[in-house]
From TrEMBL:
The lineage of its organism: Eukaryota, Fungi, Fungi incertae sedis, Mucoromycota, Mucoromycotina. This is Methyltransferase domain-containing protein. Transmembrane segments: none annotated. Residues 42-138 form the Methyltransferase domain. Pfam families: Methyltransf_25. It comes from the Eukaryota. InterPro entries: Methyltransf_25 (IPR041698), Methyltransf_Superfamily (IPR050508), SAM-dependent_MTases_sf (IPR029063). PANTHER family: METHYLTRANSFERASE, METHYLTRANSFERASE DOMAIN-CONTAINING PROTEIN. It comes from Umbelopsis vinacea. GO terms for molecular function: methyltransferase activity.
Length: 269
């Protein structure tokens, strides 16, 4: 995974993936309880196509300032155009690596990172960066996938493609475990650490099921975690297997809703 692969995937992400993360971004912003805060500086790390920005605009005071950041310029560009189109006057954007933030110590009041830390090669480094840039009393909130119905279907399709027995496997290392996520905040120096397991749906239209499946095989996170050893023929077979498993499990539907669980963890500096 690299910034370029995510930039290339930004259109796919906008079309198919952000519908799955919007709900969890809103829950993450709600979890921080910043509704009564005005004139604070918020940083969104690994912003993707801007689901946290949309939640901040919807749920918090228009006087808060949000900087949406991602290491993929293609993602940041999507958020800039949304901000312009939708009149998000308090949202600005910048390309930044979450593991090496170009910000001074104690310069930010709250940091969000939704489905980003778990994908970084050194997530612990990102958490220590969040701690460094926060003011005393500032909050860091980050969100990881716990388990997804879709993940089991992806793993089954992968095993069938390779002629293997399906096996359970954590989504991305131990970030799938809420207790691990909280421990990582403590290790980075945070206090008052808390967390919640949150359930939601990942929806997709039936008429776009094939496109949705194709977009999953292009997603840099899924490619790296599951598909990296497959050749083109195997990817084609994988798509067929995944489609068959979805139809077998859910039948023909107008809209498919895949159940998903996410961990939201928060700490105070
Ligand atoms: C699964 S997407 C999540 C996007 C968004 N937060 C959401 O929930 O829809 C992961 C994002 O992490 C970004 N990313 C991965 N590694 C990063 C890093 N080291 N620094 C900043 N962003 C990173 C990717 O470019 C991608 O936009």
């Amino acid at each position: 995974m690299n910034p370029q692969s995510w930039s290339v995937a930004s259109d796919d992400y906008l079309r198919y993936a952000e519908a799955s993360t919007t709900y969890f971004a809103e829950k993450s912003v709600e979890f921080a309880h910043l509704e009564s805060q005005t004139d604070i500086n918020i940083l969104d790390v690994a912003c993707g196509t801007g689901v946290v920005a949309a939640a901040v605009v919807k749920l918090l005071s228009p006087t808060v300032s949000l900087t949406s950041t991602d290491y993929a310029s293609g993602m940041v560009d999507v958020v800039s155009s949304k901000a312009e189109k939708l009149g998000w006057k308090n949202v600005k954007t910048e390309v930044m690596d979450g593991m090496n933030l170009p910000l001074s110590e104690a310069s930010i009041d709250a940091v969000f990172c939704v489905f980003g830390v778990m994908l970084m090669p050194d997530g612990a480094k990102a958490l220590s960066e969040f701690h460094r840039i926060l003011v005393p009393g500032g909050k860091a909130v980050y969100t990881t996938w716990a388990s997804q119905e879709l993940q089991h279907l992806l793993l089954n399709a992968m095993a069938k493609t390779k002629g293997e027995e399906p096996q359970g496997r954590p989504w991305v290392r131990s970030w799938a475990d809420l207790e691990f996520c909280k421990e990582q905040l403590v290790a980075a120096g945070f206090e008052n650490v808390s967390g919640v397991l949150c359930s939601g749906d990942m929806p997709t239209d039936a008429e776009n099921l094939d496109e949705f499946i194709a977009s999953m095989t292009r997603n840099p996170g899924i490619r790296t975690a599951l598909l990296k050893d497959m050749n083109d023929d195997q990817i084609t077979q994988f798509k067929k297997e995944l489609r068959a498993s979805i139809i077998e499990k859910y039948g023909e539907q107008d809209v498919y809703k895949f159940r998903a669980d996410a961990n939201i963890a928060m700490g105070t500096k």
